[in-house]
Inverse folding.
């Protein structure tokens, strides 16, 4: 068999991609190596640790509530993601496949909320949370993200691509409307569900602004809020090796999610651009 000739342009493209990978991966490699340095070694500004030092990790697991923060972030991220997948897809299906008075007005109203900066909603959220005793609770952290306008719009766009004849055939066979949604519609939009789930989970995993406002006790902190205590010196001085160790452990779930669902991520993003 003849070997396929590789053009110069392909070599250039691969070199550019390799350079991009190096640029993106370098901060992560530096972070991991820095977490294995002692504090004096960190300030020596050498790239490689002169000696592997696990004192930062020892401090994390023995002197902080890092595992509790980790658990809080997992619980909040999982529940909010599940809620978004169920309610956003249900609302998107209703707006896409059911004709009723005011449907377009409701969609426009939902989309208009995307133009409101999150910073403007913090005070109303906090006042509402205070009145119903949601401050410093899981539900208080989660409720702003349980249903999102972007997720509704994304699911509606995908639901529009489902043939109406398929749904009508299910109705003729006697299936109820919710069963049609659950058994017929949802399997048709798996790429969108995967993309929405990944985006929602990662967004909540990294959320900082609202959690830092609504959380008041150490046991309810999420990872970004807990790590920020050591980044600002509020926990008794900035310990960079500890911060790097926490950050290294914090990215593990995101790496796992990406490795497991990277095909779905690409597929979902690609199809999002062609759905009308």
């Amino acid at each position: 068999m003849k070997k396929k000739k590789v053009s110069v342009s392909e070599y250039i493209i691969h070199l550019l991609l390799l350079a991009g990978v190096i640029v993106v991966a370098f901060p992560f490699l530096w972070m991991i190596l820095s977490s294995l340095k002692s504090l004096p070694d960190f300030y020596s500004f050498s790239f490689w640790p002169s000696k592997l030092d696990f004192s930062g990790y020892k401090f994390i697991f023995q002197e902080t509530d890092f595992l509790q923060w980790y658990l809080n972030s997992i619980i909040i991220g999982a529940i909010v993601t599940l809620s978004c997948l169920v309610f956003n897809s249900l609302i998107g299906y209703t707006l896409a496949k059911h004709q009723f008075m005011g449907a377009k007005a409701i969609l426009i109203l939902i989309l208009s909320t995307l133009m409101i900066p999150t910073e403007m909603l913090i005070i109303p959220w906090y006042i509402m949370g205070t009145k119903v005793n949601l401050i410093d609770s899981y539900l208080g952290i989660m409720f702003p993200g349980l249903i999102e306008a972007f997720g509704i719009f994304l699911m509606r766009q995908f639901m529009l691509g489902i043939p109406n004849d398929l749904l009508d055939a299910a109705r003729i066979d006697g299936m109820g409307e919710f069963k049609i949604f659950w058994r017929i519609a949802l399997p048709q939009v798996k790429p969108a569900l995967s993309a929405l789930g990944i985006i929602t989970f990662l967004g909540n995993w990294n959320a900082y602004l609202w959690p830092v406002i609504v959380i008041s006790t150490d046991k309810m902190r999420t990872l970004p809020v807990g790590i920020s205590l050591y980044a600002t010196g509020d926990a008794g001085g900035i310990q960079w090796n500890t911060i790097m160790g926490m950050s290294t452990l914090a990215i593990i779930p995101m790496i796992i999610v990406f490795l497991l669902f990277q095909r779905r991520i690409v597929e979902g993003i690609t199809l999002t651009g062609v759905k009308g």
About this structure: The chain has a mean pLDDT of 87. The domain at 54-272 is CATH 1.10.3720.10 (MetI-like fold). The radius of gyration is 24 Å.
